[in-house]
Amino acid sequence: MESKEISIIEACKKEKSKNPFEIFFHVATRDFVNIHGPEHHVLDGACVLTAFYNAGGQIDLDDSLDRIIQQGMKMPGAVCGYWGVCGAVTSIGAALAIIDGTGPLSTDGSWDWHMRYTSDALGKLAGIGGPRCCKRDAFLAMKTVIPYIRGKYRIELEDSDVVCGFSALNRQCLQERCPFYRNSA
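Structure (tokenized):
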């Protein structure tokens, strides 16, 4: 395993918040997380799993975080541009599959439910357009999953009015086109 991903998981294990955005901001501001990169394929799902567990979700957090590393590291960087699917969304989709124990042959409705989540989240990302921003995409993917988790599991993850603190670090920031951008000037 890569040291970045291990550092992400170790940082998540220390978090007690039920708010995936708080967890994300605590971890994403560390020096082992780049502004963009495949570490988000682990980070984003790990934040959701951690908040889910902290809110009373019945999962083995250590095992779930180990599994999100295994799933997230299968996706190369830049899948958004080259494969047409965002790593933030797939990371959270993987987290949902871990929670439910879903696989490709599942017939319990979880396979369908996860596809609905990912298609909804990807549609929201597509509505904003490119170029990619791993932070914006993580925020949108998490905003989309909170009501899904509330509806399916009756688990209340805390939400936030997210204001991006990463804009100055992103040379391709969409600024006013991004729902999380706030001009600090």
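Residues 134-153 form the longest helix (20 residues). The chain has a mean pLDDT of 95.
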